[in-house]
Structures are given as C-alpha cells and as structure tokens.
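Our consortium's second objective concerns turning raw sequence data into structural hypotheses that experimental partners can test. To show how far this objective has progressed, the report includes one record in full. It was chosen at random from the queue rather than selected for favorable results. The single chain below, 260 residues long, was entered without modification.
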Amino acid sequence: MNYKREVINVPNGLGEIIKFQMNEQNSLTGSNMRELGEILNEIKADSEKRGVILTTDNPKFFCNGLDADNLLSTPKDRLIEEVGGIVILFGELVKFDKPLITEVTGYSMGGGAVITVASDFKFMLDGKGRIGFTEVNVGLPLPGSFADRVRMCVSARYWAEVCLEGKTYKAAEAKEIGLIDDIAASPEDLRKLAVKKLETLSRVPLSAFRGTKNMLNGEIISKLGKYEKDTKTAFEAPGVVDNLLEAMSALKEKRRPNFK
C-alpha cells in the first residue's frame, strides 16, 4: 500500500489525510504517481469530501523525488513514461479543485518539491529536512509547468537559484523566499497548522472555492498538454538520458556524477 488514507471531520463534510508510504525515501515511480492521481480524482468526485492533507509518518523523507532503482531498471525507450509521470501528476494536483494542503515533514527534493508547490497551502517542519527543485542537478531540464508554478509563489529575485541552480532550502529559508507558507517546530504543531487551514477552507462554499481555484490555476491548466509535449521533446535532447542515468547511478553509489 503506497498511501494510507485517514478520514477526518471538518466543517460541512469530511477531509482526508493521505500519508505517503511508498518506500524508504517515499520516492516516486510511474505506478505510484498514477495511483495518487486516481485517489485525488476519486476524492474530487466525492460530494462529502471537502479537501486533502498530504503528509507522511516517515521522520526523514516527505518525498525524495524520482526513484533511482526504478529508473535504472527501466528500459531507455520507456524512461520518458517514468520521468514524465511527475508532469502528469502535477497536472492532476493543480486540477484538484478542492483544498489541497501539504505537510513537508522532511526532505522534499525534485518531485517532492513539485507536489508541495502544486498545493494551495504548504507547511514545513523546522528540522533537518530541505526542499528544492533538484532536477537540473540530475541532468533533467525543469519542465515549464514547474517553472510557471515557481513564479506564482517564489519571490522573483530567487527564480534563478531555485530553477537553474537547484538550490535546496531549510524550512525558514524556504518560507523567506515564498516556497513554503509557514513552518512548525514539531510534527504536532505542523498537523495543527494543516488541519486548521483545512477547517477554515471547508467553511468556504465549495462552488465558490472551486471556481476561484480553477481561475487561479487556469493558465497552467490550459497549457498542460503543451507542458507534456515540451517535456518529451526536452527529454529527447542529446545527453539528457545519459546524464540522468549517471546521476541515478552516482546517487546509489554515493559518489559525484560524471556528466557529459
């Protein structure tokens, strides 16, 4: 079971807490990303459900991006299905037109950061964890949908270091640049922040919330097909696949990658 689901009571209905439990680092595969998208669509269609909190009980990793073992065992001609899955999941997240809140409990790299910024509200535990769009550091061009979302929440002066440098941030640093909305000193306080926000949003008439959220995300939603096509084109550029596989091998072997 990749996701543990818990139903809670909120004003005007029910909320759901979805806990990541994919593997040791909560890393992403094509299969578990599709599963999360299906869960979100199920909740979206459930008239009793008012919103979702994404979290994990893993004390170290919220979500540490794409799964290295999975990528290294995938045939080259099918790698785009695995890597491109995060672009498709991002689309499902921004199309989820009910309240979506993320508790960043630990490390949130690459795909973990993508899930975080796709949420309406983002809270992070003030601990050892870091968050960052590390795609360029593993040889992957950052998809346009992610860059557009970064521009929606991160202060403009930090766009370059977030997207081009793949810099990672502690909780307080992430809050300072706008990548995170607020931080908490303990897991208990983090949960209080998330539940309080979900309760507040659940009091808003759902039709008004949905219409307004779809308006805010409208430009990104309208370009989802283009983002997927552009991601495939960028992935086919010379050197991208080789650099990605070298980065994954280096990660497993705990060494620095030798990029081409």
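The partners drew two points from this record. The CA atoms of residues 40 and 211 lie 18 Å apart. The first helix runs from residue 30 to 45. Both points have been shared with the crystallography group to help prioritize constructs.
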